Amino acid sequence: MKSxxxxxxxxxxxxxxFLIVWIATLLIVFGASAGIVMAxxxxxxxxxxxxxxxxxxxxxxxxMQISDGSPTRTIDSAGQCSRLC
Length: 85
Known about the structure:
This protein has one helix spanning 16-57, and strands at residues 4-5, 11-12. The chain is mainly alpha-helical. It has a domain at 18-54.
């Protein structure tokens, strides 16, 4: 099947090559979009499982070793004088 040419020498007609390239381009675009969506879903699943593990461990509590304080303590109240009265 030969393409017909017009008076300018340009060819018009059905091109299998154009159709194949167009379909391949569409498949690549759809495949890339699906890959991005799947990667996002996998990332959300990982974050969800990490958060579930964190919640299962319970609250985060900071623990310090008890330090020895001084043996005596001084408490001043507002109504008392600081010197011997």
